[in-house]
Specification:
Helices cover 0% and strands 48% of the residues. The protein contains no helices and eleven strands. Strands 2, 4, 5, 6, 9, 10 and 11 form a seven-stranded mixed beta sheet that branches. A four-stranded antiparallel beta sheet has the order 1-3-8-7, with no helix packed on it. The protein is globular, with a radius of gyration of 13 Å. It starts with a strand and ends with a strand. The model has no long low-confidence stretch (mean pLDDT 96).
């Protein structure tokens, strides 16, 4: 399984970015696809997840991003996206894409539930 995240960069506070994660080597439509982030000196934290067919396609968000971020997926392209709007300094982090088809719905926000990870893409927010 390979996950290739892209789309990070430098953005002004209040701006937007769209992250992409292209997956290969797995049955994408059956997989939970999630985004996590890690800021310097902090633990990796859950951002958003798109449940696959097993999870009823239900998206879920961390409270800190709800209403600003949107996760979506294109099953034909084996790609998951994270649209990030109204970015602020607290959103600055390395964003990681994670995938696994064995996730139990109750654990979908837990990083330990995912075996496969991308290398991360840096998001920097300037004030």
């Amino acid at each position: 399984v390979q996950l290739q995240a892209s789309g990070g960069g430098l953005v002004q506070a209040g701006g937007s970015l769209r992250l992409s994660c292209a997956a290969s080597g797995l049955t994408f439509r059956n997989s939970f696809m999630a985004w996590f982030r890690q800021a310097p000196g902090k633990e990796r934290e859950f951002v958003a997840v798109s449940a696959g067919a097993r999870g009823g396609w239900v998206p879920s968000y961390a409270d800190s991003v709800k209403g600003r971020f949107t996760i979506s997926r294109d099953n034909a392209k084996n790609t998951v996206y994270l649209q990030m709007n109204s970015l602020n300094s607290e959103d600055a982090a390395v964003y990681y894409c994670a995938a696994d088809w064995r996730v139990i719905a109750s654990s979908k926000r837990n990083a330990a539930a995912y075996e496969y990870w991308g290398r991360g893409t840096q998001v920097t927010v300037s004030s």
